[in-house]
Write a structure and sequence with these properties.
Blueprint (H helix, E strand, L loop, with lengths): L6 H20 L8 H29 L5 H6 L10 H4 L5 H22 L5 H29 L3 H18 L9 H14 L21 H16 L6
Helix pairs in contact: 1-2, 2-6, 5-6, 5-7, 5-8, 6-7
Amino acid sequence: MSSTTTPLDELLAIGDDALIAAQRLAQWCSRAPEMEEDVALANIALDQLGVARLVLSYAAEVEGAGGDEDTLAYLRDDRQFRNCLLVELPEPDFAFAMAKLLFLSAFQRLRYEALATSADERLAAIAAKAVKESAYHLDHATMWTLRLGDGTEESHRRMQNAVDELWPYTHELFEGNELRPAWLSIVEAVLAEATLTRPTDGWAPSGGRVGLHTEHLSYLLAEMQVVHRAHPGARW
């Protein structure tokens, strides 16, 4: 985050990354390549959702507008979300899902490690728990990246295509922080072992942190928010 970023901005960025990542991962339920992977991705999605709830609950208190995590999740429009563009992108095949999880989880693990020593004790406690989960997510994504990248000709082609397509969006993760060198050391090692080519740096889209998103977020939010907006204040 930049020097002009407020504590609320930081909380929203963390919470929104996790929330939108959870929604995308949940879309793989019943669509993963094997039953065990259905369960694994559902659990990773729940981990992300758990972080989102804790952080967005805190963000609602900091905002002081009388809302809660549900208010922030279901009643904001796309321009009010602060997630990075990477997490909102659709996943046309399983290779895209795994490449995205690799990039995101490597970043989240480093970010949570840094936040675990924050002077903000509440955020530090959330991060200390989340870093353990993100380490598992990274291991899972690494396993599949190796399996697909160093697998058949077709799986290699699909994995390389996913890496190439998603790479430009990773630059936004490091705006206002110094995590990219450590992230590169993790990701480059995995790509090399998977016989995948590390893309060159060039085009670097951004804007998610200030509410400028792709059209994909609008469609995702329409699906995610429809029940809450159709039945405001409903309780199970």
